[in-house]
Amino acid sequence: MSTAANVQRGRLVANVRSQTFQPRSDLDMLFIAVNVEHGTIMTAWLVPSGAFDEMAGEPNSSGLRRFSASMKSESRDRWRPYRLSAAELAGRILARLDELAQTDT
Over the stretch 32-75, which tens digit does the pLDDT of each residue have? Predict the structure, then answer.
């Protein structure tokens, strides 16, 4: 949420419980920074679960895997290939659903 200190500094941080996370080819992770004042998407990341599994690192002592990504367009962090603007998100989701439908046939 836009009220979080990390988001105000241009970074989205989220935790994924390793106990319930199981990567598979038909699962993507959707991380979204939301502007709560306007009810709009600021930045989003649509990450295939296999890529998240490889890139997120080992779980911490609490069993959490951390997603920490820059919201800045000029950033070249490791999550950059999956970063989307609000305008790009719907099209990317539809393209991903189409990819999944083609692999089912």
Answer: 999 888 889 999 999 999 999 999 999 999 999 999 999 998 88
pTM over 0.85: yes
Q: How far apart are CA 20 and CA 24, in angstroms?
A: 12
Q: Does residue 56 contact residue 40 with C-beta atoms inside 8 Å? A: no
74-105 residues labelled b (16+ CB within 10 A) or e (exposed): eeeeebeebbbeeeebeebeeeeeeeeeeeee
- What are the distances in angstroms from CA 15 to CA 20, 27, 69, 80, 101? 12, 17, 12, 18, 29
Instruction: Give the angle subtended at the CA of 94 by the CAs of 48 and 45, to the nearest 5°.
Output: 40
